[in-house]
């Protein structure tokens, strides 16, 4: 069966162009017998699993189902195993980022302060940013064609300067290069550089850790997991619970202590 038909199937399901390209490449490797998942990272197996799962939904095949079932997929992703930043680490990185230049400053501060995914921020459109100045709500394009309005006032300070930064962009990711992958690569590297400059281990830091830190701090402060779910744009609350279910008690106790110290002005 032609891959072009599978590509149209993914387009109909409103997958992003980069995801469609990646999924069709994986399926091509599978159908040609060149797909290898031995001794590969969790991240790669995770992508292969969902690519082939969609291919199975498109083309029911017993051999394909058996191959999918053989892929290790029930491990806890490494990004969930790393404890979040402490309050002091978050504050140090936040203050450090405020002194940096655009457009890196805008994206990383927004991640720190809102918990939005790096991809969600990258897909914010310039016209929606301008529109948010009057509506108070920023239109966020999520995965698979979904969208959500996010309170703009919470992140206006960081994103507003981008409106006049350059008039030639449609999506924020275009401020960093020709592709979304370039945007991810540049933000990831800059984040690691800034983390190292404030004494945070580079091996710990990644964009998702900022999201997890935001979720943890907000939950500890509000005790309202449903509010956290909505701000993180999670489809179900189980995903939100996974962010905090494996936190060591020592981390939780230390977090409360640091929050109390900040309230007292120490």
Topology:
Blueprint: H1 3-12, H2 17-31, H3 42-58, H4 62-69, H5 78-81, H6 87-98, H7 104-114, H8 118-122, H9 126-135, E1 137-141, E2 147-151, H10 156-159, H11 180-197, H12 207-222, H13 225-232, H14 237-244, H15 249-263
Antiparallel strand pairs: 1-2
Features:
single chain, 266 residues, mainly alpha, hpI Integrase, Chain A, 2 domains, 15 helices
In short:
This protein has 266 residues and is mainly alpha-helical. The chain has helices at 3-12, 17-31, 42-58, 62-69, 78-81, 87-98, 104-114, 118-122, 126-135, 156-159, 180-197, 207-222, 225-232, 237-244, 249-263; strands spanning 137-141, 147-151.
Structural description of this entry:
There is one protein chain. With 266 residues, this protein is mainly α. 61% of the residues lie in helices and 4% in strands. The protein has helices spanning 3-12, 17-31, 42-58, 62-69, 78-81, 87-98, 104-114, 118-122, 126-135, 156-159, 180-197, 207-222, 225-232, 237-244, 249-263; strands spanning 137-141, 147-151. Strands 1-2 form a two-stranded antiparallel sheet. The N and C termini lie far apart (66 Å).
């Amino acid at each position: 069966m032609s891959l072009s038909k599978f590509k149209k199937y993914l387009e109909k399901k409103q997958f992003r162009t980069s995801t469609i390209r990646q999924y069709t490449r994986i399926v091509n490797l599978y159908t040609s017998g060149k797909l290898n998942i031995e001794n590969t990272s969790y991240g790669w197996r995770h992508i292969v699993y969902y690519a082939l799962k969609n291919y199975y939904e498109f083309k029911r095949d017993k051999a394909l189902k058996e191959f999918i079932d053989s892929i290790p997929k029930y491990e806890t992703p490494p990004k969930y195993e790393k404890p979040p930043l402490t309050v002091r680490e978050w504050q140090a990185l936040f203050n450090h980022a405020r002194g940096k230049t655009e457009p890196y400053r805008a994206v990383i501060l927004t991640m720190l302060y809102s918990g939005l995914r790096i991809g969600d921020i990258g897909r914010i459109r310039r016209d929606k940013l301008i529109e948010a100045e009057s509506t108070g709500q920023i239109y966020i394009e999520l995965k698979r064609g979904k969208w959500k309005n996010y309170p703009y006032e919470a992140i206006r300070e960081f994103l507003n300067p981008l409106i006049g930064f350059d008039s030639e962009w449609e999506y924020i990711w275009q401020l960093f290069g020709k592709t979304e992958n370039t945007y991810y690569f540049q933000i990831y590297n800059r984040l690691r550089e800034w983390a190292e400059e404030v004494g945070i281990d580079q091996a710990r830091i990644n964009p998702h850790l900022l999201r997890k830190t935001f979720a943890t701090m907000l939950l500890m402060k509000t005790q309202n997991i449903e509010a956290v779910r909505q701000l993180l744009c999670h489809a179900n609350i189980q995903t939100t619970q996974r962010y905090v279910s494996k936190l060591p008690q020592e981390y939780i106790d230390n977090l409360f202590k640091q929050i109390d110290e900040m309230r007292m002005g120490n």
